Amino acid sequence: MIKYQDFELVDFVLDESFQQWVLSPTQASDDFWKSWIAQNPERKKIIDQAKAIIKGIDYKKLSLSGPDKASILDNINARIKTGELKEELSIYNDDVLSDYDDVEETVIYSLRTKRKSIWSRYPVAAIFIGVIIIAGIWFFSNYFMSPPTDTSMAYLERSNPSGIKSTIRLEDGTVIKLNAESKLTVPPRFSEKERKVALVGEAYFEVAEDEKRPFIVTSGNISTIVLGTAFNVRAYPDENNIEVAVANGKVVVKNTDLSGKGQKSDSLILLPDEMAVYSKSQLATRKSGFDFMKVFAWKDDVIYFKDANVYEILETLEKWYGVTFIINRALNENKDFTVSYRNKPLKAVLEGLSFVFVFEFDINGKVITIN
Amino acid sequence: MEDLGDHKEHKNCKILKSEEVWNHFRQDNAKALGILYDRYVDDLYHYGQRITKDQELIKDCIQDLFVDIWEKRKKFPEVHSMKFYLFKGLKRKIIRKLIRNRKLPIDKNILEEYNFEIIFSCESELITRQISEHQQKQLLQSLNKLPRRQKEAITLKFLDEFSYKEVAAILSMSVKSTYHLIYRALGKLKENFPKVITFILLNSPF
């Protein structure tokens, strides 16, 4: 290695193999440089200085404290969870993602600053977007539905856990939006006489027209029979009522309870804006009007509350986002709240609620503690 | 020039190489994120201080960086040097944020408004043995007069132990000009060590 003979201090400092030897020596580089120094003892001083400079260079800096480190990591984890919710929601509604990004900005901002200050930047009005209808409360678990009895073929099942909605397109062109904690069972192929599906939970149907084959949704004792229309069926196992609400077209709702109690074989014909409500306790079906937004908002990814108290709201959010709330103190039950949220991250929703109902919250994965 | 992949970056972590952690990470192992975070958060925080003095902004950007790499984990097939990748990402985030936060019109030299101070590591006994206090002082004085970019290059090279190729990528310039940048910066050494054969110094710049 003749080249090193003429090296001055700065040349050594700049030489990459020299640097590598100083910073992370290997057996080979160590052997090389030690023998080189042995052969050029007069250069040892320069070598040592070059080493000292390479190793000694540093700069003035502060270090992160332990709590700082931990809180940054907590924020990262919280935001990752929010991001995953966003991903899930985007499955259904890609076109709202751009709006969503703005909301995400809000969330990021609020994660990093004292929560109070968010209100000075984002007027309360911006958070309370909606002026629409009533609160739906959902909680429950999935039960297995009674399988349709008319065939032994393998049925297809789509089952959503809490926090997840999905859209299903059937062979006949019917589109079904299945809500969280709901299950839809469909035969592998519809028969020539009818199109029959079974539902536990809630779903919105846009049934493709086919006058020769009625479309039938069975949910417990209630069958909903249509030719082609849009309607919502809500039949959660732990709710007393089964509700069938019609957006357009004509729907027949039939009580198929054969136990002999209550009304038998009563069937109702529903027109748009009409709803059939079947009471499991009274085994009776009645017709009523309904609030369109309350029933149909969910299919457009809108969470809607009208005059809802804080517990109703939190229960709904549990199902919608697939989270669990741990409530450590009594909240003001007497306050009613009306609001709608479209595709908002849970964090943003909670920011608003925590302001109205005066609580603090802590998101830790899927568990949210309220203090 | 060494390959990016040869870079030695985890002297203290023999158990699992960063790139292996990264692979776990890509397979959705959220724990791996915590490991990467613990391993690099100090280095990243320190690096941030070579770009801006705004400590809160650095913390925010570190947050954004880790959220980002988690969200994009599946899009990156392979990462040769995790540290390099993170440094580059952090720098980009800090610059973007600095520009966004700025009330004035965008100025290309936003980074040059700030400079950090090079010191000789106090732990290094080596330096006090080899270089007189006077020389050290002079050396630091001239190093600290350098533009921030040159100082960044020097610290990335010697302190963070990146290869010239990696330093070049972080600074967004060619390897050749990076080398010259560092060379020019350290040319100051020549002034402070004029032909130091004997080091009983006649070390007056005047």
Give a written overview of the molecule:
The complex is a heterodimer of chains A (371) and B (206). Chain A has three domains: 2-56, no CATH class; 64-134 and 299-371, Phage tail protein beta-alpha-beta fold, CATH 3.55.50; 156-290, Sandwich (Jelly Rolls). Chain A contains eleven helices and 19 strands. Chain A has helices spanning 9-14, 16-23, 27-39, 44-56, 66-92, 97-112, 118-121, 124-127, 292-296, 310-321, 346-356; strands at residues 57-59, 156-160, 166-169, 175-178, 182-186, 195-206, 215-219, 222-226, 230-235, 241-248, 251-255, 267-270, 274-279, 284-289, 302-308, 324-327, 337-342, 361-364, 367-370. In chain A, strands 2, 3, 4, 5, 6, 7, 8, 9, 10, 11, 12, 13 and 14 form a 13-stranded mixed sheet that branches. Chain A has a three-stranded mixed sheet with strand order 16-19-18. In chain A, strand 18 and strand 19 (367-370) form a beta hairpin. Chain A is elongated. With 206 residues, chain B is an all-alpha fold. Chain B has two domains: 10-112, Rna Polymerase Sigma Factor, Chain: A (Orthogonal Bundle), CATH 1.10.1740; 123-192, Winged helix-like DNA-binding domain superfamily/Winged helix DNA-binding domain (Arc Repressor Mutant, subunit A, Orthogonal Bundle). The longest helix of chain B has 20 residues, at 82-101. Chains A and B meet through helix 1, helix 2, helix 4, strand 1 and helix 5 of A and helix 2, helix 3, strand 1, helix 5 and helix 7 of B. Strand 1 (57-59) of chain A pairs antiparallel with strand 1 (118-120) of chain B, so a sheet runs across the interface.
